[in-house]
Design goal:
By secondary structure, the protein is mainly alpha-helical. It has one domain (about 1-125). About 70% of the residues lie in helices and about 10% in strands. The chain is built from five helices and two strands; from the N terminus they run αββαααα. The chain has helices at about 1-25, 50, 55-75, 85-90, 95-145, and strands spanning about 30-35, 40-45. The chain has a two-stranded antiparallel sheet with strand order 1-2. A hairpin with a 5-residue loop joins β1 and β2. α1 (about 1-25) runs antiparallel to α3, α1 packs across α5 (about 95-145) and α3 (about 55-75) packs antiparallel against α5 (about 95-145). The longest helix has about 55 residues, at about 95-145. It is elongated, with a radius of gyration of 23 Å. The protein starts with a helix and ends with a helix.
C-alpha cells in the first residue's frame, strides 16, 4: 500500500507532462491566460512551450514541496505538531513513527488529489472540444431524424 501512492503519483505526473507535450503541437497561435468574471477569456499570450508547460511545472513543484514536507516530518520524530502535543511527546519513538507514518501517507495521498485536479484542469479543454465536435456531428442527425427527414 505504501508503494501504491508513489506509483499513482508518478503515473499522474507522467500523464500530466506527457499529455501536455502531446497536445502542444495542436494548439492555436494564442491561448487564453486570464478569464474574466463571466468566464470569457480577456487576455491571451502566444502558445509557446514555456507558457503551455507552466501548469505542469507548477504541479511538479507543488508535488515536490509536499513530498519534501512528508520527508522532513519523518526525519526527526519530534518535528510534527499534533493537537495534543503533550500526549504525543510521551509516546515511545516507535509509536511516534506510527503517527508520522500516517501523516506522511496523508501528505502523499494529498499529492495524488492535487495532481488529479491539475490533470483535470489541464485536460478539461480537450474534453470540451471533443464533446463539442461530437455534438456538432450528432445534433444535426438527431434533428433530421426527429423532423422526419433522412
Amino acid at each position: 500500500m505504501d508503494r501504491l501512492v508513489h506509483v499513482v503519483n508518478a503515473g499522474l505526473l507522467a500523464l500530466l507532462i506527457g499529455g501536455s507535450l502531446w497536445l502542444f503541437p495542436d494548439l492555436p497561435d494564442q491561448v487564453p491566460r486570464h478569464f474574466g468574471i463571466g468566464g470569457t477569456a480577456d487576455a491571451y499570450w502566444e502558445a509557446t512551450l514555456l507558457h503551455w508547460m507552466g501548469l505542469p511545472c507548477i504541479a511538479v513543484a507543488v508535488a515536490g514541496l509536499v513530498y519534501g514536507a512528508a520527508w522532513w516530518i519523518g526525519t526527526p520524530p519530534y518535528s510534527i505538531s499534533v493537537p495534543n502535543q503533550q500526549q504525543y511527546d510521551v509516546l515511545d519513538p516507535s509509536d511516534k513513527r506510527v503517527v508520522i507514518g500516517h501523516v506522511q501517507a496523508f501528505l502523499h495521498w494529498t499529492v495524488t488529489a492535487m495532481l488529479a485536479l491539475f490533470s483535470v484542469s489541464l485536460g478539461m479543454p480537450a474534453v470540451l472540444v471533443i464533446a463539442a465536435l461530437g455534438m456538432a456531428w450528432w445534433l444535426p442527425r438527431r434533428v433530421r431524424k426527429l423532423s422526419g427527414e433522412s
